[in-house]
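Shipment paperwork, digital attachment
Item: protein structure file
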Amino acid sequence: MDSILIDTSFCIRLLKSNDTLHQNAKDYFKYFLEKKIEIYLSTIVIAEYSVKDDPINLPIEFVKVIPFDFFDGKTAGEFHSILLNHKEQVANIERNVIKDDCKLMAQLYNRKIQGYITKDRKSFNQIISPLQAVKDFPIVLLDLEIPLKDFKGELF
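Attachment content:
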């Protein structure tokens, strides 16, 4: 994996020192930097993050900010349409969450970003899997609740 898209839940945990997943977020971020994995931050995530905190606090100097553009909009619409055909899988997810996740997946897909890290593991099966089944794109999914050492398969 040479690139990763970080989501809002990751950004919140990275900057909230009293969060139970703060250390996991710090460890992953440090790992991405050490391994020279390109870290992408969407303007969609910046907008979501801005609801509760000033986005100036985000680690902008270490990430590539990607705007949501025309082609992302087109792909996000296609992805949302795919999910509408899987209503049973997304029935318990807020409509706004589905739309925003489709936007992030469109950016990931269009830019061929290889990884995605989030605390929202429900999205793996309910949103990402149906999209992958139809569009056949590989992605490394990282669950922020799994410590880095476990992801890497280390004992200590």
